[in-house]
Amino acid sequence: MPHLNKRSTQRLFGILTVSLVCLYIIITTSNLSFFNDLGPYNEKRFLQVTLLIFLAVCTATLFRHSIHTVVNRFPGTVKILLLPLFLIGILSSINTNNPLLSITETGQFALLFITCLAIAAAYIAAPNACQKIILFSIVTLALIQTTSVLTAYTAAMASSVDWHSHDLFLGFSNIRFFNQLQSWTLPLIVLPLILYTQKNKRLFIGILFISACWWLLLLISGSRGTMLAMAIAIIASLAIYQKHAITWIRLQLIAAAIGFALYLLLFYIIPFMLAVEINDTSITRLSSVNARFYLWERSWFFIQQNPFLGIGPMHYACDPQNLIAAHPHNSIFQIAAEWGLPAAFITLFIFLYGLYCWIKGNNQSQPTEEATKSLNIRIALFASLIAGTTHSLFSGVIVMPVSQTMMILVIGWMIGIHFSSRPQRKESNITSTLFPAIVIISISFLVIGIHQNPPPQETMKVQNLTASKFIPRFWQQGKTCAFEELSSKTTL
After folding, report:
1. Phi then psi dihedrals of residue 474, to 5 deg
2. How far is it, in rounded angstroms, from Cα 278 to Cα 270?
3. Distance (Å, rounded) from C-alpha 57 to C-alpha 61?
4. Helix (H) or strand (E) holding 418
5. Cβ atoms of 125 and 10 closer than 8 Å
6. Which residues, 6+ apart, have CB-to-CB distance to 235 below 8 Å?
7. Measuring CA to CA, how many Å separate 293 from each of 163, 217, 237, 454, 455?
8. Cα 156 to Cα 178: distance, rounded to the nearest angstrom
9. Mean pLDDT for the stretch of residues 383-408
10. What tens digit of pLDDT does each residue of 245-275 get?
11. Is the pTM of this model over 0.90?
């Protein structure tokens, strides 16, 4: 009986964890506001921090056994590298002009990883329930966003005011934050079609239409990063899984084709018939040039100056010569420039090793219905990881709050699947001792860093005083430290 009670408790915690993470994604991407003074971006960050701290406290106190079962299944090589990576973050933070700024992100990244472990433990404890919650949430998210955009489109078409296609996306301070979320979710949106709609034609048509609308929203936004990411994800899935990926790819192409037809209808045929002109640059901007090369050059400069410990977490934002962006729009450059080359190599090794283990773990020997469904889940998650990672090489996927949260949801789900078939190892005394300490340190870093750095209202004032645009990083105005340095130089 105690054993059953323990399993029931772990299952309950797993469902609660995944539900809270999914609820965060749905709420923060809807056009809802709980703290009007913060603004949409800062509100997303504030809610994310609250979620991360809450789940970290729960895992370290009430449900630490669930996390230990996941950590103890990690290969020895990975476990050996994780602690040095955290220590490098601390050393890099200390070795900066503004340690309190750096420890904010060090603590946040650590809590993101802890939440990722909690999601993995959740899947191991309640696989079917967690899977349904995640997929239902993605479909719900797509339905809400589609309804919002189409409602805004209808209102805009009925008005006489000039409008841009990007004005239709109301829940994001920058449309690219929406696209970052899409890079993770587009590969997963068709999964319910494979898993749950075989005997329900109406449900199949409904979810296929929602999937097509998710592609429609991508075309309206005109995101090169997500389009490139999806193209590479499809090619990689075909190369790795070959004929087994055909079903998933076919559904994606059908949804994309319907989405493209809807795009032509809404933005070309209907406006032509009504003699309405729409300021839509979605297609033309696909060939435009941007300032990413300059951002990458600045990253390379910082890597050369500080190859071992970097310039410190979040200190790319403090560069007074760069008022374009607060991060380099490249995940590898960001880690290498801010945390140092050793941290970048460790992160890259863990990612590639994990990808290798995921591909190696494919079970294609049993052509049963359940095995086929399981393989399609693995294909979709592989594509999601490839798409999100690819997009992170051109955008702030590892920076923005909603994208960060979706990232750990996908990776945690993958870890849970991979370890669910692995035997549970004996709990390590080192893990039992270190884990609560790391949680306490991470929460302390994050709370102290937020307390000492300008709160959202103050960063808003910086934007108004300097008459510059918002440049997001942790808060919506991520260049506060750069503005302060410029102000001090001007004063001198």
Report:
1. -70, -50
2. 11
3. 6
4. helix 401-420
5. yes
6. none
7. 31, 27, 29, 30, 31
8. 20
9. 96
10. 999 999 999 999 999 999 999 988 988 887 7
11. yes
Beta bridge partners, 20, equal none
What is the CA angle 348-350-355, rounded to 5?
Answer: 95
Residue from 181, 228, 176 nearest 390 by CA = 228
- Measured distance CA(351)–CA(340) in Å, rounded: 17
Q: What is the C-alpha end-to-end distance of the chain, expressed in Å? A: 72
Tokens of 32: 């809802």
Q: Tell me which residue has tokens 């005083």.
A: 465
Whether pLDDT at 107 is above 50: yes
- CA geometry: angle 69, 71, 76, nearest 5 deg: 125
Alpha helices, H only, 246-321: 246-264, 270-274, 292-305
The tokens of 66 are what? 């669930």
Q: Are 314 and 474 in contact (CB under 8 A)?
A: yes
One-letter identity of residue 200: N
Residues in the chain: 492
- Joined tokens for residue 235: 């090619």
The one-letter amino acid at 245: A
Mean pLDDT of the chain, nearest integer? 87
Question: CB burial class (10 A; 0-12, 13-18, 19+) of residue 263?
Answer: buried
Cα–Cα distance for residue pair 1/364, rounded to 1 Å:
37
Please, are residues 362 and 300 in contact by the beta-carbon 8 Å criterion? no
Q: What are phi and psi of 164, to 5 degrees?
A: -110, 150
- Flag whether pLDDT at 162 surpasses 80: no
Q: Structure tokens of 317?
A: 């934002």
Q: Percent of the chain scored above 70 by pLDDT?
A: 88
Residue 259 to residues 18, 253, 293, 318, Cα–Cα distance (Å): 30, 10, 32, 41
